[in-house]
Amino acid sequence: MTVAAVWFAFGVDLDKYVDQVHAYNTRTGRKTFIFVNLSSVEDARRAALKGVDAVVVQAILREFETSGSPLVVAAGGISTGARIASLLTMGVDGVVLGTRFLFTPECTYTAAKKDALLCADLKPLSARWRTMKSAAQMDGLRIAIDVPFQSDGRP
Asked: Out of 27, 30, 36, 155, which could bridge 47 as a Cys pair, Cβ 3.0 to 4.6 Å?
């Protein structure tokens, strides 16, 4: 089986892993598509210089150039068709939905975790972090759904 794509997110030393995929591609003559999920403009620019195929950006879209290479994929609290359309209009190459699927019957989250999400303000991430009150709400939500503190998605 051939791996078509890899997705790196919120880790340390991502450059090392991107380099390993590039080395694998060179060694095998294959092309493994590299996605890197980031939450700062600096990290997104560094990933672009490393030759990744797509940067997945959360809460920093307005600050990041959306034309050229790598592809720009928007993520973070996207839960409606209208939001998808607005992001595509802004020039992103694609969107990733995650939060939206937490409300499906297939999701293994407990009822308490789903209730915490339903009570949260699920605006796009960029809008969530505009106030300290919103940040405190997200901290509480992150604790309720077991997201590691080092992965807070803040710009």
From this structure: 36
pLDDT tens for 96-107 read 988 778 888 898
* The domain boundary residue, chosen from 60, 81, 97: 97
- Segment 21-29 mean pLDDT: 96
Cβ 74 vs Cβ 97: under 8 Å: no
Average pLDDT of the chain to the nearest whole number: 77
Q: Same domain, yes or no, for 92 and 121?
A: no
Query: For residue 136, what are the domain limits?
Result: 104-148
Helices marked H in 29-131? 41-49, 81-90, 111-119, 125-128
**Do 132 and 68 fall into the same domain?**
no
pTM for the full predicted model? 0.70
